[in-house]
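Comment thread on ticket #2218

A.B. wrote:
> Attaching the input chain for the structure job we discussed in standup.
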Amino acid sequence: EVQLVESGGGLVQAGGSLRLSCAASGFTTDDYSIGWFRQAPGKEREGISCISSPEGSTYYEDSVKGRFTISSDNAKNTVYLQMNSLKPEDTAVYYCAADVGYYCSDDDINYEYDYWGQGTQVTVSS
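C.D. wrote:
> Ran it. Output below, let me know if you need it in another format.
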């Protein structure tokens, strides 16, 4: 079974940076996508970025474009989300998600993936 584990969250000041990690296991194919989502208290879950394998195409929601960067280290089976210029409104639990046989795109940033991690808390203070 595919398993995902997020890490790297924490408390930072506005303008600071964090790098989140999503460690994946259980894949039997190179044809899959990984998405990053976040959910703040009282708000809907929001897709913010995704990356597809094997081509490595990346996509971003408008609110994080130019600030967040998604990348992958295939040797480590890990996807990263580098978050710069953090704002208080970025405060949320961040999740990674995966699906096989799917190529993510910028018009499908909220695609409903089959597999999810447990999340990691990001808090940005003013």
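A.B. wrote:
> Thanks. Noting for the ticket: The chain has no helices and eleven strands.
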